[in-house]
Specification:
By secondary structure, this protein is of the alpha/beta class. It is built from 7 helices and 5 strands; from the N terminus they run αβααβααβααββ.
Length: 154
């Protein structure tokens, strides 16, 4: 995990990474804890699109759980060295190029565009469909999840 993060002073972070972390997912906890400790300490910066806030707040709103909603909102808006960037003209232009070139869905294109515009060299996700993207370097979390000594999941 650390070796995957090492070359990246700035990383883009997909929504699911936050959800895994906030919900305490046991499989990906070691990865997300390593990532967020390094961001919190200032070892690296993290960026994500404002759509991450939208996507993470859906479950608390479905459940009517205001405490969960507040916890998620606070975590995303106050985490040290994490920038949530709005969708603006520059991000939209880059996202359109990514959609045209790679056939990405709009949310994925916006996340990756945010990453690129903010100067991130890596993008952390668990979305296998993004493996084909070369810039930024896509880091698939499940590649670093070992199950009882078995090789990484591909």
């Amino acid at each position: 995990m650390k070796e995957a993060l090492a070359p990246h002073g700035v990383v883009g972070v997909d929504t699911m990474v936050f959800i895994y972390h906030l919900e305490g997912d046991e499989r990906f906890g070691p990865f997300t804890r390593t990532l967020f400790r390094s961001v919190e300490s200032g070892e690296r910066r993290a960026v994500t699109s404002i759509i991450t806030l939208l996507e993470t707040l859906v479950k608390p709103k479905e459940l009517g759980d205001e405490e969960m909603r507040d916890d998620y909102y606070y975590a995303l808006t106050s985490f040290p060295h994490l920038k949530m960037r709005p969708v603006d003209e520059e991000v939209a232009e880059v996202a359109a190029e990514l959609r045209a070139r790679h056939g990405l869905r709009t949310p994925d294109a916006l996340q990756l565009a945010t990453c690129l515009v903010e100067g991130a060299s890596g993008f952390i996700t668990n979305d296998e469909g993004l493996r084909k993207i070369e810039d930024p370097r896509v880091i698939i979390m499940s590649d670093y999840f070992l199950n009882a000594g078995e090789p990484p999941i591909r």
